[in-house]
## 1
Amino acid sequence: MPTPLEKWVEQQAQLTKPDKIYWCDGSEEEARTLMQIGMQEENIEGTPVFQALNPSAWPDAYFHRSHPSDVARTEHLTFVCHKEKVTAGHNNNWMAPDEAKALMTKLSDGCMKGRTMYVLPYMMGHPDSPYAKACVQITDISYVAVSMRIMTRMSKKVVEKIGNSENFVRGLHSVGDFDVNKRFVMHFPEENFVWSIGSGYGGNALLGKKCFSLRIASCQGYREGWLAEHMVILGIEDPQGNISYVTVALPSACGKTNLAMLQPTLPGYKVWTVGDDIAWLNVGKDGRLYAINPEAGFFGVAPGTSMKTNPNMMRTLHANKFYPTLFTNTALNVETNEPWWEGLDGPRPEKLIDWQGKPWDQNSGTKAAHPNSRFTVSLYNCPTLSKEVDNPQGVPISAIILGGRRTQRVPLVVEAFDWQNGVFLGARTGSEMTAAAAGQVGALRRDPMAMLPFCGYNMGDYLAHWLKIGQRLTHPPKIFAVNWFRVDDQGEFVWPGFGENIRVLKWMIDRASGRVGARQTPIGLLPELKDLDMAGLHIPQEKMEKLFAVDPDGWREEVRDIEKFFHEFGDRLPKAMAEECAKLAKAFA
Ligand code: GTP
Ligand code: SPV
Ligand code: MN
């Protein structure tokens, strides 16, 4: 008798008609074979799926180029297919499940002809964790199979674990013919199923990541009483050796990976990395909030990564422990066969080919690496990896930090008055859009908890769920919001960011343990400048004041924009959020 898993795989094979079916076991040996296959397979015209990079400079590293139309998440082609449209909310594209399945069935008929179907059994979360979930993804490209080996805990043991159960998360992925007109990422939360076609890009194709661990998992969390969040998890060790854990939600390409492994500029401080993109948060028996990282790797933004900004990521990329490391859509140094991106250390190489494989002309006004070019590398290569990373219960959270990319108006850091006000602080957060999603870079959009593109259900219900979780916490974390991105009149960042962000983290930890006071303003509690540890960093007083300036005119406009955004939630907006918003409006009236 075939198991439910075997039956499901067989059904998908009947539809997609691959030449071969291969069940991955997640071993290193297998990954090496897949790399060999990928190096011989044509992906897009003239480019193989993988190219080996210079092994003396970048051991076990490979380059992948995706289709030029397929370099970022495509939010407009991403749907959440609940039975009822209102369950998906105004924050999601919606299609009725039957209609979505009919469309996907048509597009998928025979889409794997001539290709190999890879069956990938994997866990999100450490297998020993009560919060981990067993999953199986099907794909038809070696790049996704190898990437999933890095990003998840892939093993044949998962097949045994699933056994005769129906209870596993399903993902069906095919690159199709990369046709953007036949590209869709469909989620079926009621069935724990994701179906994606036409894209080989990370967030659209590595279905354990945003598709499952956020969109589907947020729905599971809503039903089961926990939270799936777009958050970094890190430990901050003070000079006395005490470690406090915090989570940080920032929208895509707004600094999570950098923060996760920051090299502190304050003496005696250390940062320990638990995760850089996704956190699953559960209420512990002791009434505290606990976080696990469901992932096992980093899929990080390459441009801007250097020994200056993020030395620990540079070390991770060179660690050569867990096989392999991938680079996608960076530029290439023709002479040395090394990946290159804007912001990398050292002089710019003479001869570069750009992310599309064309000789790059420095006078062309274009970037050589795609702004959303990325690396894929194992968490276990990271020199700052926390010893708690595999703790099945997760780590206890002292502070939740929310934020966005705001060049104006929003201060460097602000603390919420309490949990409800903190949920409002998250709900009102806006961010200027980045290259991580196809869309208008720089445009301001409200992005509650950095989850607008990832919340798999009605965002009004999501905010209500946050409020409810707060009621169950007898020791709730303090909630803060940060903004590293305020610029001066010349357009330069006022705050130096990166390793210097430890100064802000320190203030938050000091607040959480009641060591320092704060200044009350209508938008929240702000630091007294004397309480920010600025030892060894000189920023003129006037600039520091500007970082914390609350301009009433600006905030009146801000409130109007928040009200407009909240209006879109209709009757699903929790009353508490409307009340908080009214309070803020009144303070500036
Ligand atoms: P996703 O992987 O898309 O979720 O992005 P992320 O939030 O992990 O962003 P990441 O850390 O990769 O940073 C994105 C960009 O922001 C990079 O170009 C960084 O160099 C830049 N960045 C990160 N931290 C800071 C900071 O503190 N200040 C400034 N000015 N830029 C930063
Ligand atoms: C993001 O866009 O937030 C990412 C990359 O972390 S992706 O996997 O494409 O979602
Ligand atoms: Mn992300």
## 2
Amino acid sequence: MNEDNNYQISLLSAVNSKLAKSEGMLKNICDISESAFIYFDYEDKKPYVLGNWSHFFGFEPSRFVSVGQIVDLTEDEFVEGIYRVLNLEKSGEEKASYDFKLRDKKLYISCNVNVLYDNAGIPVWKIVVFNDVTRFKLQNDELTYMAYFDTLTGLYNRNYFVVMLGELVEKAKENNTVVSVLFIDVDDFRKVNDGMGIVEGDEVVQSIGLSFKHLMDDNLLVSHFNSDVFCMAIYDPVGKRSVEAVTDRIREIMNTPIKLVNGKEATLTVSIGVAEYPESTENYLELINLAEIVMLKAKNKGKNNVQYYDKPIIDEFIENIELEKKMAKALKEQSFFMYYQPQYDTNTGELRGVEALVRWRQEDGSIVSPETFIPIAEKNGSILLLGDWIIEESISDFAKWKEEYGNMDDFLLSINVSSLQFKNKNFVKYLISIIKKYNISPTNIELEITESVFIDNMQEIIHKMKLLKDFGIRFSMDDFGTGFSSLSYLRDLPIDTLKIDKSFVDDVVTDGSTRTIAESIIDLSKKLGFDTIAEGVEQEVQYSLLKNIGCENIQGYYLGKPMQFDQIGKLLDKRGMNTPDTEEVSG
Ligand code: C2E
Ligand code: CA
Ligand code: CA
């Protein structure tokens, strides 16, 4: 008996110590877990309170009396909810989860409750777990914020703007009114980014965004789409919120110089495209597209402009896109070909050379002007492939002339090179490789470039030109007088020829001041040691006047239109007959 007792006692104490051990273990786990727990046993009506209570509720588990303490601490709007889940057995539910906040703390707490019932539906136990979800919540809020707002400017982002525009259009439909969309693009923004730096670029966008924000009201949405693009939507644009009033205010904002952190100032302009529901389209997504397309027109018109929706602009845009597609095909199928326009020396009357001019024959046989497709090719980058083709095709034609007509030492093949093409890093290598492939002299090649090539990085371009010049290639400044032409900067450029633009030639006979300008250009050009050539000469009077004021070379319909390869051959044939040798024989 005694032994039995002893056995029982030691068994009990073993069980007890094991229990105490696992209870201790449980407590440790709960303490470490950073959560707070309540285990409620309905039989002995005793709550076991464990975990990190002070973190949540500011008191130790030992001071817990009832869940009422938690409810008391809870922010008003959550009181009802937390009361319900903490007393979940009252509703007979088994599981619930509820997120709430305490009044004086910035914590977000998630409360999970589980209740076990017996077969009769009487609760047996209940477990309540509190978790700190603050970090998750804040992240979530940030994500929500980022889903709707642009972080740089705090304006609505593109996605949210689109959603709200959809709602505005719906509302306008019901109320039979108008919604205007303004697509706003900062002019020459790349120059800010390139010239000042990306950080400053961001600063500029931010500053513009903040100013635009002041325009916002219930009927005027302002959003930042990306980089330097903003979009606004005006519901029922009348009076102070008419498109005109709003664009005036935008202009006012843009007229104020933007002060940057580094002390510099920037003054910029914007181009704005406007499309309207329901006149332009009834589809709100299309509204934005249309506004963007007409904005591009505002840019082309010289920037700092407002362009309203106009169907022909859209038609032209769509046509261009179709042309773009056709061009890609044409490049593959080789439906481009070259024309050559003769250039003559006014003193000797001799052929100076030819300008290579590209043409495109479409499938229906019609010929598209390069004035139409070159700008498109420049925009979509296909000018690089096309430009390479033009170089090889015209140089190979030149090589054929040379083979057939012998001495071509003084003959110049002028090739137009667009800015993008010239700036391409493979340009020099490619051109030289073609010159070598056809075994011609680089001194026969003159590249026609326009002033636009110098806009971005003048020093780099000059370096490239010098490289080619060392090789023997000449340069001609095309369309001179139409760009930002300042005569003083010409001096620093490694060019050989100045090509006086047709617009001067057009008026040179009829307008005295044009003649004076032409005269001084020719004069200066001579002083700087350049050749001069006038293009677009259509009349005899223009020819003789230009010759009289010292223009050394002439190109134009008066002397010859752009023509095919073999027609140039005929001219070269004649030139052969005019050489001093033949003259001697004939004379
Ligand atoms: P551009 O370089 O100024 O070429 C002169 C343009 O004036 C040519 O038009 C030529 O046909 C035209 N023209 C010449 N003489 C007269 C005249 O007396 N009267 C009139 N009304 N026009 C005259 P085209 O061939 O249509 O070329 C237009 C523009 O397209 C060129 O202007 C050039 O900017 C570009 N282009 C043409 N071919 C090429 C090319 O191979 N490569 C590149 N990059 N651009 C080209
Ligand atoms: Ca040209
Ligand atoms: Ca020209």
